[in-house]
Amino acid sequence: MTTRRDLLQYSAAVAAALAGTGLGGGTIGRALAQQRVTEADLLAFEPLGNVTILHVTDIHAQLKPVYFREPTVNLGVGEAKGVPPHVTGKALLEAYKVPPGSPLAYALADIDFEALAKSYGRVGGLDRVATVVEAVRAERGDRVLLLDGGDTWQNSFTSLATKGQDMVDCMALLKPDAMTAHWEFTLGAERVKALVDTLGFPFLCQNVRESEFQDEVFKGSATFERGGVKIAVIGQALPYTPIANPRWMIPDWSFGIREKELQAEVDKARAGGAGLVVLLSHNGFDVDRKLAGRVNGIDVILTGHTHDALPAPVQVGKTLLIASGSHGKFVSRLDLDVRDGAVRGVRHKLIPVMADAIRPNAAVAAAIAKHRAPHEAMLAEVVGRTETTLYRRGNFNGTLDDVICDALLAERDAEIALSPGFRWGPTLLPGQSITREDVYNATAMTYPAAYRMAMTGGRLKEILEDVADNIFNPDPYLQQGGDMVRVGGLSYTIDVGKPIGSRIGDLVLARTGQPLAADKDYTVAGWASVNEGTEGPAIWDVVFSHLKKTPTVAPTGASTVKILGA
Amino acid sequence: MTMTVSRREAFALGAGVVTAMALGGAGPAWAKNDSDELIKAFTGGKAPVKGKVKLDLPDIAENGNTVPLAFTVESPMTDASHVTDVLVVADGNPRGGIATFHFSPRSGVAEAATRIRLAETQNVIAIAKMNDGSFYTDTRQVKVTIGGCGG
């Protein structure tokens, strides 16, 4: 088995190789950057062993290349405090010896993001991802397994308009071997089942059961033969889907981590002669790290949900954890030497999908164009302009959500705005036009109603406490993933190290500068309520209407949240 | 010989005989949770020992209105040594009582499964009374969230 040191050293070697093609910062022009970053460099990999796993996850229906800024603040608690993936920016690059200014540094960290984005351009694009997959298949033949960790079918305009059909059709061209799911379920039980029936590859969710009798709703696992190795892939959907998303859309399905059932599935696979057991997971990284120490016999966990990208595997016992980012920005390649039912050698690379350097696959590009054609003119319509970077990722706030909160406050005439801590949504650069598509990319989902209601100060605190515990409970099994709910018109203090009920304090209403009164009603506007029958205009229409009146935005990213105990 | 028992029937069989189903409805706002008193009355003031009982509950309830609960008590269930009663209480509901399950050696096993209602994040406590007058217990915390911001 490869040691952690080996893996780190290997990743350092990769980083050094990439550095040869890299840049010293954002001072060099884009054309030059493009010349110096080539597809061959990005894909360079010395093959190893008899199995290659390719992993993509959390694409969030982004068919086209995007900008995507990684978080500045991504706090870990308990045992996850200060360890990957809870390391960002400079510390992350140093931990993995990634040269600043290199393509990988641009992809992994927020440092010099704007300058590097101008040099290197956009990332992702399903047609580029297809090229990476095709190249590895050409090299490795029947050794390759392509696995999709889910959050694939939702969160763009076309995926919403076609109820996920655009993603299903385009992904089909990449010929995935299996997938698991989370946001897929927001299409509703009936639509999910209908799409799954057409996939032609397994939709694996061992932890989704029919509520009454706990029967499996989907296949829990599938077996593949690659490079002469029998490989069992077990799927794990987001365990908290009915809490994090509307339960009424999937009323008869129950989720949960289901360790016992998972262990049984692993044991069954081993007993059936599997030489390699892979968990295709949408648990979130910290949940998977804990799970790896409690469920025996899993060789590889392909993590998802928390959008972390790591340039080397994290090892827990004999289990390797792979983190492959989001939005089509990365493809993870994992070569394994599997002999006599055990992993003898490992080589890994987190491949940044640099859209300007990697050629689009023509067939996938054509399929994307076909799905977009009816909407292309509408999507390209300019509705505003930003003077600062608009991004979403960060535990407490993001400038994209500041714009949404401002729109809610103004358009819904509210004192306080709440915007969910979603981790999806691409980035816009300073000076960039905001198109209709950009707004949809930050808001497209099946329960978009922007509600307006009265809430007491006490209730608001309760909500903030509840959401904070979903992120900062020291037991990962009690974390749902997702970031902190974003607030507008309100400031507060959070001590992440405290228990539920005592993390949140100093709530102050911005409009008056007065502390929130526990028993007083405030007018609150928000969106993405999980409750059935929520009323209000769609959030994107709220944002369009706001931008029509104030087309230029310039959020500074200054947070109204004071963080303690981090 | 094969006997066909539906899963629903099997559930009912496994549950033994349930009486005194005190579902935690909406109690008066001033009512204090009475789980401590219920436990004291059940054990006659004796302190139950941690062990033998295993409560199975989700870490996070998907729906506080119907939370699956199951328990098993380690026991040979013979005339000489068996479980007679199991009390289940919740310390954060308006009222603490959930159910008392009665067993005899003819139950074969001391286990049951049902659904309970939990108003908020709280502890669920099961206490088993053995025929020799000893008491065993297990506690599980269940998180009941307001939910709605994952992704």
From TrEMBL, chain A:
Keywords: Hydrolase, Nucleotide-binding. The keyword 4Fe-4S does not apply. The keyword Hydrolase applies. Residues 383-536 form the 5'-Nucleotidase C-terminal domain. Belongs to the 5'-nucleotidase family. This is Thiosulfohydrolase SoxB. It comes from Rhodoplanes tepidamans (Rhodoplanes cryptolactis). The gene is soxB.
